[in-house]
Amino acid sequence: MEDGAARAAAVQKLMAAKAKSGKSFSDIGAETGLTNVYVAQLLRRQAQLKPDTAASLRAAIPALSEELVDLMMQPPFRSYNPEMVHEPAIYRLNEAIMHFGESIKAIINEDFGDGI
Protein backbone atom coordinates (compact mmCIF):
# COMPACT_ATOMS: atom_id res chain seq x y z
CA MET A 1 0.00 0.00 0.00
CA GLU A 2 1.22 3.47 -0.86
CA ASP A 3 1.54 6.14 1.76
CA GLY A 4 1.07 9.81 0.99
CA ALA A 5 4.76 10.45 0.28
CA ALA A 6 5.07 7.42 -2.02
CA ARG A 7 1.92 8.46 -3.88
CA ALA A 8 3.22 12.02 -4.30
CA ALA A 9 6.54 10.72 -5.65
CA ALA A 10 4.76 8.39 -8.09
CA VAL A 11 2.45 11.16 -9.28
CA GLN A 12 5.45 13.42 -9.83
CA LYS A 13 7.08 10.74 -12.03
CA LEU A 14 3.85 10.09 -13.92
CA MET A 15 3.30 13.79 -14.57
CA ALA A 16 6.94 14.17 -15.69
CA ALA A 17 6.38 11.37 -18.22
CA LYS A 18 3.25 13.16 -19.46
CA ALA A 19 5.14 16.46 -19.71
CA LYS A 20 7.93 14.75 -21.67
CA SER A 21 5.33 13.54 -24.17
CA GLY A 22 4.24 17.14 -24.77
CA LYS A 23 0.63 15.97 -24.85
CA SER A 24 -2.45 17.16 -22.99
CA PHE A 25 -4.80 14.86 -21.10
CA SER A 26 -7.19 15.25 -24.04
CA ASP A 27 -4.49 14.31 -26.57
CA ILE A 28 -3.65 11.17 -24.60
CA GLY A 29 -7.33 10.35 -24.22
CA ALA A 30 -7.91 10.64 -27.95
CA GLU A 31 -4.95 8.35 -28.69
CA THR A 32 -5.98 5.71 -26.16
CA GLY A 33 -9.76 5.83 -26.50
CA LEU A 34 -10.07 7.00 -22.88
CA THR A 35 -11.64 10.18 -21.55
CA ASN A 36 -9.34 13.02 -20.59
CA VAL A 37 -10.63 12.86 -17.01
CA TYR A 38 -9.83 9.14 -16.76
CA VAL A 39 -6.33 9.78 -18.10
CA ALA A 40 -5.86 12.49 -15.46
CA GLN A 41 -7.11 10.11 -12.76
CA LEU A 42 -4.69 7.41 -13.92
CA LEU A 43 -1.72 9.77 -13.90
CA ARG A 44 -2.66 11.10 -10.45
CA ARG A 45 -3.04 7.52 -9.05
CA GLN A 46 -6.77 8.02 -8.49
CA ALA A 47 -7.86 5.21 -10.82
CA GLN A 48 -6.57 1.74 -11.65
CA LEU A 49 -5.07 1.03 -15.07
CA LYS A 50 -6.60 -2.03 -16.68
CA PRO A 51 -4.24 -4.48 -18.42
CA ASP A 52 -5.98 -4.11 -21.80
CA THR A 53 -5.35 -0.34 -21.71
CA ALA A 54 -1.69 -0.45 -20.69
CA ALA A 55 -0.23 -0.88 -24.19
CA SER A 56 -2.11 2.08 -25.66
CA LEU A 57 -1.17 4.28 -22.70
CA ARG A 58 2.51 3.35 -23.06
CA ALA A 59 2.32 4.12 -26.78
CA ALA A 60 0.82 7.54 -26.01
CA ILE A 61 3.31 8.27 -23.20
CA PRO A 62 6.59 6.58 -24.20
CA ALA A 63 8.43 7.76 -21.05
CA LEU A 64 6.23 5.57 -18.83
CA SER A 65 8.49 2.92 -17.36
CA GLU A 66 7.37 -0.66 -16.82
CA GLU A 67 7.61 0.03 -13.08
CA LEU A 68 5.19 2.97 -13.34
CA VAL A 69 2.77 0.99 -15.50
CA ASP A 70 2.85 -1.85 -12.96
CA LEU A 71 2.19 0.65 -10.17
CA MET A 72 -0.75 2.12 -12.12
CA MET A 73 -2.29 -1.38 -12.33
CA GLN A 74 -2.42 -1.63 -8.55
CA PRO A 75 -5.49 -0.37 -6.67
CA PRO A 76 -5.27 3.41 -6.40
CA PHE A 77 -4.50 5.36 -3.26
CA ARG A 78 -7.55 7.53 -2.74
CA SER A 79 -7.62 10.15 -0.08
CA TYR A 80 -9.31 13.40 0.81
CA ASN A 81 -7.34 16.57 1.28
CA PRO A 82 -9.51 19.13 3.11
CA GLU A 83 -7.25 21.94 1.88
CA MET A 84 -8.26 21.12 -1.70
CA VAL A 85 -11.72 22.65 -1.25
CA HIS A 86 -10.04 26.05 -0.91
CA GLU A 87 -8.63 25.82 -4.42
CA PRO A 88 -10.92 28.13 -6.49
CA ALA A 89 -11.88 25.66 -9.24
CA ILE A 90 -12.62 22.88 -6.72
CA TYR A 91 -14.61 25.33 -4.59
CA ARG A 92 -16.76 26.29 -7.59
CA LEU A 93 -17.31 22.64 -8.54
CA ASN A 94 -18.51 21.91 -5.00
CA GLU A 95 -20.75 24.95 -5.21
CA ALA A 96 -22.23 23.66 -8.49
CA ILE A 97 -22.92 20.25 -6.95
CA MET A 98 -24.63 21.91 -3.99
CA HIS A 99 -26.74 24.03 -6.35
CA PHE A 100 -27.65 21.36 -8.92
CA GLY A 101 -27.22 18.23 -6.77
CA GLU A 102 -30.88 17.58 -5.96
CA SER A 103 -31.93 17.88 -9.61
CA ILE A 104 -29.07 15.66 -10.79
CA LYS A 105 -29.99 13.09 -8.12
CA ALA A 106 -33.64 13.14 -9.23
CA ILE A 107 -32.64 12.46 -12.84
CA ILE A 108 -30.27 9.66 -11.80
CA ASN A 109 -33.01 8.09 -9.68
CA GLU A 110 -35.51 8.40 -12.51
CA ASP A 111 -33.17 6.88 -15.10
CA PHE A 112 -31.33 4.27 -13.02
CA GLY A 113 -33.33 3.75 -9.84
CA ASP A 114 -32.70 4.66 -6.26
CA GLY A 115 -29.27 3.90 -4.91
CA ILE A 116 -25.67 4.37 -5.81
From TrEMBL:
One of its GO terms (molecular function) is cyanate hydratase activity. Keywords: Lyase. It comes from the Eukaryota. Residues 84-116 form the Cyanate lyase C-terminal domain. Pfam families: Cyanate_lyase (PF02560). The keyword Lyase applies. PANTHER family: CYANATE HYDRATASE. This is Cyanate lyase C-terminal domain-containing protein. It comes from Aegilops tauschii subsp. strangulata.
